[in-house]
Amino acid sequence: MLLRSLLLTFVFVCGLFAQDDPEWTTPHAPFRVVGNVYYVGSKDLASYLITTPQGHILLNSNLESSVPQIKKSVEALGFKFSDVKILLISHAHRDHCAGSKLLKQSTGAKYMVMDRDAAVVESGGKADFQYGKSSSNWYPATKVDRVLHDADEVRLGAVVLVAHLTPGHTKGCTTWTMKASEGGKVYNVVIVGSPNVNPGYRLVKSTVYPTMAQDYELTFRTLKSLPCDVFLGAHGSYFGMEEKFSRRKAGGVNPFVDPEGYKSYVVEREQAFRKDLATQSGGGS
Question: Which secondary-structure segment (H or E) carries 171?
């Protein structure tokens, strides 16, 4: 499963800004992950619905074309799309936030984004340090209603999500944590933003992002410090979503409760970062 996840991650980072991965737009059956946390994304672009009696939180609007699919998934679960009160994202790349303007217009949700990604979102991707010069990576500029900072809490009813700044992939990449209850147990849920070093990123001597390497260091320190029972992420491939979904349907122990999988993922991604850093440092680039 880890090998498949890594291969999908490779396809993701190599193909993200050339053409869309078909798995980004392939529908997936919505399902309950744990407690009040539901998956409403596509086969690989993850979107999460977090429900409360006071309304719902949606994490990741994905592509513009994803919004009707997300709406259909939310309604298939028996919830009202119009009850989405808060919209969050993992980071300001097109595949996770291009649908935000349409989603805001459809639901009236308040859009909350980490401070270091807010300007990118409001520029429609044009302010992105790596991809902003290419129109293929632009998306509808969307007003941010609340600018978040590291460790800020987002509350709706009794639900509390904590925004953890995990920068590098984008300057404001955000990993979200919350607690969810199921079967009389309370679980620590971690939704990873992204620790991936994309092709073309300059970890050394970057003129557009001089602190990139230090920011990745911060990200891995943060990820290793977070208590995790339920491991989720911005892409299904991060956490073996398909395989776990099949096991979830079969019943028994919830496969998304995977603390060891989380630890292994973070270790592998940090090793990949350090390999890239060593290569770039040794090559003098």
Answer: none
Question: Residue 176's closest CA among 184, 168, 188, 158?
Answer: 188
Query: Cα–Cα distance between 278 and 203 in angstroms, integer?
Result: 10
Backbone φ and ψ of 207, nearest 5°: -85, -20
| Grouped pLDDT means (10 residues each) for the chain, 285 residues | 46 50 95 98 97 98 98 98 98 98 98 98 98 97 98 98 98 98 97 97 96 98 98 97 94 95 98 97 66
Apex CA 245: angle with CA 220 and CA 40, to 5°?
A: 80
Q: How would you class 78 by CB atoms within 10 Å of its CB: exposed for 0-12, middle for 13-18, buried for 19 or more?
A: exposed
Contact 91, 79 (CB under 8 A): no
Q: Which residues are 55's β-sheet partners? A: 52
Contact assessment for residue 165 and residue 116, using Cβ atoms and an 8 Å cutoff: yes
The confidence score (pLDDT) of residue 19 equals 66
Q: How many CA atoms lie within 13 A of 131 on its CB side?
A: 23
Give me the count of residues in the chain. Answer: 285
Q: CB under 8 Å to 15, separation ≥6 — which residues?
A: 21
Angle at 101 between CA 27 and CA 134, to 5 degrees: 85
How far apart (Å, rounded) are the C-alpha atoms in residues 210 and 162? 27
Q: Which amino acid is at 28?
A: H
Q: Check residue 14 and give its pLDDT.
A: 39
Residue that is written with structure tokens 């409403």 in the block: 40
- Please state, in angstroms and rounded to a whole number, the distance separating the CA atoms of residues 216 and 114: 16
Cα→Cα distances 149→85, 146, 174, 175, 232, Å: 20, 10, 10, 12, 21
Strand partners, 111: 87
What is the rounded distance in angstroms from the CA atom of residue 92 to the CA atom of residue 285? 26
Kindly give the interhelix angle for 2-15 and 259-283, rounded to the nearest 10 degrees. 50
